[in-house]
Design brief:
Length: 419
């Protein structure tokens, strides 16, 4: 019999795939959307930032809600909500309507990763946590990577509106399946074996379970130096990540004069490398943790990843052909995706039963970075006439993020407040 926690990981992996397919589809459909709605590149950048703003603002509230009502309700509910707004995006009739819908779409997606973090806290032993988070985030990169060429062809064939409606239906199917299968606590699952339940309960983080939960007011939470370091480095990381999910495809297509299919294939390569970076980092996190070096298991993969990102970004701007440029961008994305497993593992470490709230707050900061990049890329291009400055800025921020990890300590847990 397949262990039930493996099925939980499979469900969250598929959710991560869907999350990023739905997110990246608007970038792939940029040409048709801007033509149909009469948008400029700057307006389209603001639309993408509207998603990031909605996504960022609702991270902490969604994380708090996940901690309170559990991963079953929060994930089934938010996938339904964001799928509805995916469909509504196809009904936008002008710039303002698309701006509002994408803001609400971002707000709807906000609870996904905090909800997954809360599920991982309850279901996954600590020694398996790094790889599981790596697998979860590899799904986001695989989803985005596969979406670029597949959606490019689908949108060319069926149109962007029909494609968005199809994605809405897929989201509904996932929500129903998750609601039927998942339970917030392993002990509540009707089909879990006694051996697996005993293994999970013996090896998961201290404090997991269904006992009384203390409070973690926002003011108390924000006293954590570790949380502020995580927020800062994640903001810098999202400069690279959001660029790849939004502007990479149109940038590659226009810079190298490629057709839709070729641009999609080239753009998917860095994201596939990011998926590999996620799994490799997750494996490395668990290997170092198994050696008894808890803090190093989070620090080392993240520091190495950020330095790779800085190097890859600098090298990419030295290239004149699409192949070498994509190669070095792939190095950069492999590096930045190495930070995901240690970052979310760190937040689960210090957050405990408030893992959703703490990880959501980190993700909120990260998506402030996303909101900055949406319009910043076309504005910098307009001001400077090339993309070099943008890539050098990202390289510098990546080095600064690596420094944050030098001072981060995952063993300093944020304590609960009990009445």
């Amino acid at each position: 019999m397949i262990p039930k926690r493996y099925l939980v990981v499979t469900g969250t992996f598929l959710l991560s795939v869907l999350l990023y397919v739905d997110r990246v589809c608007i970038s792939t459909a940029k040409g048709q959307i801007t033509t149909d709605l009469g948008l400029t590149d700057t307006q389209f950048g603001v639309v993408m930032s509207a998603f990031a703003v909605g996504y960022a603002l609702f991270q902490t509230p969604s994380g708090m809600l996940a901690d309170r009502i559990g991963g079953r309700k929060i994930l089934a509910g938010i996938v339904t909500v964001w799928s509805i707004f995916t469909g509504l995006s196809a009904l936008a009739w002008n710039y303002s309507s698309l701006l509002i819908i994408r803001f609400l779409f971002g707000a709807g997606e906000a609870g996904a990763f905090p909800g997954m973090a809360r599920a991982v806290y309850s279901w996954i032993p600590v020694k398996e946590r790094g790889l599981v988070k790596g697998i979860n985030f590899s799904g986001s990169r695989l989803g985005a990577a596969l979406a670029l060429p597949v959606l490019a062809v689908t949108i060319d064939s069926l149109g962007w509106k029909t494609t968005f409606f199809i994605l809405t239906g897929i989201g509904f199917v996932w929500s129903i399946a998750w609601w039927l299968f998942f339970r917030d606590e392993p002990s509540d699952h009707p089909n879990i074996t006694k051996d697996e339940l005993a293994y999970i309960e013996a090896n998961r983080q201290a404090g997991s379970g269904s006992g009384p939960v203390g409070k973690m007011p926002l003011g108390h939470m924000f006293r954590s130096a570790g949380l502020w370091l995580m927020m800062t480095q994640y903001l810098f990381a999202n400069f690279t990540t959001f660029f790849c999910l939004t502007w990479l495809y149109p940038h590659v297509k226009s810079t190298y004069n490629l057709n839709s299919a070729d641009a999609g294939l080239y753009s998917m390569i860095p994201l596939l490398c990011g998926a590999v970076g996620n799994v490799f980092s997750g494996w490395l996190v668990d290997r170092i943790y198994a050696s008894g070096r808890h803090a190093l298991s989070r620090k080392l993969p993240a520091i190495f990843g950020f330095l790779l990102t800085a190097f890859g970004m600098i090298m990419s701007v030295q290239q004149n052909a699409v192949g070498p440029a994509i190669l070095w961008l792939s190095v950069a994305v492999f590096g930045v995706d190495m930070i995901l497993s240690p970052s979310w593992s760190f937040c689960i470490d210090i957050g405990g039963r408030h893992a959703g709230q703490v990880s959501g707050t980190m993700n909120m900061a990260g998506n402030i970075g996303s909101a900055i990049i949406g319009p910043a890329f076309p504005i910098l291009l307009l001001w400077t006439g090339n993309t070099d400055v943008f890539f050098y800025i990202i390289a510098g921020c990546s080095v600064a993020a690596a420094v944050c990890w030098v001072f981060a300590d995952p063993t300093k847990r944020i304590t609960e407040i009990h009445a």
